[in-house]
């Protein structure tokens, strides 16, 4: 037997690796996810190690199904982890909201990765904390890799104690941060088929009028969790100071930037880190803010925390001035520089712009000094990417009145030079859904040609195609099938014949699915076969109903990798 | 007062920056220092410009050293720039000050609208002056090891062996052994050692 001490380790882990570590230590049995930046590596890691721990891991068809799958496991008594990016919460919200009403049986943690600054996301700069308020889901916000591990473990504890799913919300600088993490070597082994579904109509069926009772129970539970979190050390005050001029409240990654500023500027300030965004430790916050004349709330994106704190101040008759977004941006990430400026402004301090810089220049970099403009290097399709073959042909043959429908994935780059084949871009699967609307609305005035990848087709593109067929419109849908979900780091999808753990699985044939949906004009061809693509496209452009061309060829990176191995 | 040593690594998606930051952060911990880093994955990785931030504590003694809090540092606060591409090296200069060491791979991944190589080099010289080092890392790794991607390890080796980066070579070697899969370990160690000479 190893003693407990030798079980402790300290290693550099990426935030997402630390999340996996926390889940392993908590004894997770069942892991589901849909890949998306910045949370994709969580699944990738489980894909490699799940078997060693007897854990079940799946890449689900989309985030809604991923959560549903975990609900099934939870009701059967297993501990589950679900991971997704911010937009995934939109997709699974239909399941998430009632799940808070029913509660969980086996503990469940849902990891959501937000992306302030949209480094790895199109679409919107979504702040998933809005869902915490709407769904009443307990939400923990780690700032560093250590907290990623700790909060996932704690999330499972809270979930187990209160029979409620817990959200761990990261942002890109947390998920993709590397830092030393202390952890224990897990020693459990799961046996997932040991799960047993014990029927509980009262708890698992959300029919009225019971559903309103459930809501009452949820609100009561929330207050119990709030009381628990009031005492938790995850909401803590660092650098307690007697200075009553200014107090700071921070959440998430902003804590690290703020502490860097406080240390570097040798400021004598109290900093309260709030890690449980929902439910908030109201008493702890009230006790903190009443000590100061002003409190600066430092959080990224929308001022959800700031608003709550203003309400808490109001409820408690506290006159402290609460400031935040008047001096901090609501768009993009926060960083050391922005926070330094904000604190200096409130304290009336003059900071030397870039103490180390060459000269005193306003925005203070050498480059601006030299008035150097550096051309932007935009992302592009990889060398050898099969899309390079098909896209020029499709563009050349498209009629002048074409409306290009864009979608999510590597094919997003059709919107950039040299392709410039995108007239709208929304979310997973929407190229065809919107294309249908364009076709219906414009008749002969425009021709909708939509471009989508194989992963997106399975995720939600199929549903839009059914709608187009059923409601009789005529977009031309191009499916660029590169045999994998590539953009997010090469994850398996239902078209590959492999599951999340790289075991063989039934291979969904896109052409057969499309035919079964009632599409008459469908053709699968090699992306490199210009002649055939040209002939088929010319023919399909004359059709009055929906047409689908599946351009199939393996992703160039995947191809090279397979040949190497 | 500044207590961290800040390293900015820039390049183009696909050049192996993620592996480099994995090795570097593990090496810093093996050296007994605190470290935090930030990297990007996904969309920005597909041939786009990638910047990786690494901050390490200056002292190993925890009594004397403050911990590294933020994984990002300010413009003007980089102590060392490792540029895997000339233009991306130049882009990193936004974070440089007059003391910053610039170690730049003499290698350019062109794209539509790129600046001429000579102009990039000239600008780098104006900024870097005596602190600028053009290193033919990709060329050397291609010639000696048939793999340009190992330029990351060569540049790291150059910085370590020339004392631009206060990490013991043994710490890097142990980090490579930990971070790199067995199949590629030997060539990464070789590329690192190549810079010793």
From TrEMBL, chain A:
EC number of the protein: 1.2.7.8
Record key words, sorted: 4Fe-4S, Electron transport, Iron, Iron-sulfur, Metal-binding, Oxidoreductase, Transport
Reactions the enzyme catalyzes: indole-3-pyruvate + 2 oxidized [2Fe-2S]-[ferredoxin] + CoA = (indol-3-yl)acetyl-CoA + 2 reduced [2Fe-2S]-[ferredoxin] + CO2 + H(+)
Domain of life of the source: Bacteria
EC top class, as a word: oxidoreductase
All residue ranges annotated as the Thiamine pyrophosphate enzyme TPP-binding domain in the record: 407-550
UniProt cofactor(s): [4Fe-4S] cluster
Domain Pyruvate flavodoxin/ferredoxin oxidoreductase pyrimidine binding: 22-207
InterPro entries: HACL1-like (IPR045025), IorA (IPR017721), Pyrv_Fd/Flavodoxin_OxRdtase_N (IPR002880), THDP-binding (IPR029061), TPP_enzyme_TPP-bd (IPR011766), Transketo_C/PFOR_II (IPR009014)
GO molecular function: 4 iron, 4 sulfur cluster binding; indolepyruvate ferredoxin oxidoreductase activity; metal ion binding; thiamine pyrophosphate binding
Note on cofactor: Binds 2 [4Fe-4S] clusters. In this family the first cluster has a non-standard and varying [4Fe-4S] binding motif CX(2)CX(2)CX(4-5)CP.
Quaternary state and interactors: Heterodimer of the IorA and IorB subunits.
UniProt xrefs under PANTHER family: 2-HYDROXYACYL-COA LYASE, INDOLEPYRUVATE OXIDOREDUCTASE SUBUNIT IORA
Function according to Swiss-Prot or TrEMBL: Catalyzes the ferredoxin-dependent oxidative decarboxylation of arylpyruvates.
Protein name as annotated: Indolepyruvate oxidoreductase subunit IorA
Organism: Candidatus Staskawiczbacteria bacterium RIFOXYD1_FULL_32_13
Source lineage: Bacteria, Candidatus Staskawicziibacteriota
From TrEMBL, chain B:
Species annotation: Candidatus Staskawiczbacteria bacterium RIFOXYD1_FULL_32_13
Name by which UniProt lists this protein: Pyruvate/ketoisovalerate oxidoreductase catalytic domain-containing protein
Occurrences of domain Pyruvate/ketoisovalerate oxidoreductase catalytic (ranges): 13-196
Keyword Oxidoreductase among UniProt keywords: yes
Pfam families per record: POR (PF01558)
InterPro entries linked: IorB_Oxidoreductase (IPR052198), Pyrv/ketoisovalerate_OxRed_cat (IPR019752), Pyrv_flavodox_OxRed_cen (IPR002869)
GO terms, molecular function: oxidoreductase activity, acting on the aldehyde or oxo group of donors
Keywords: Oxidoreductase
Keyword Oxidoreductase: yes
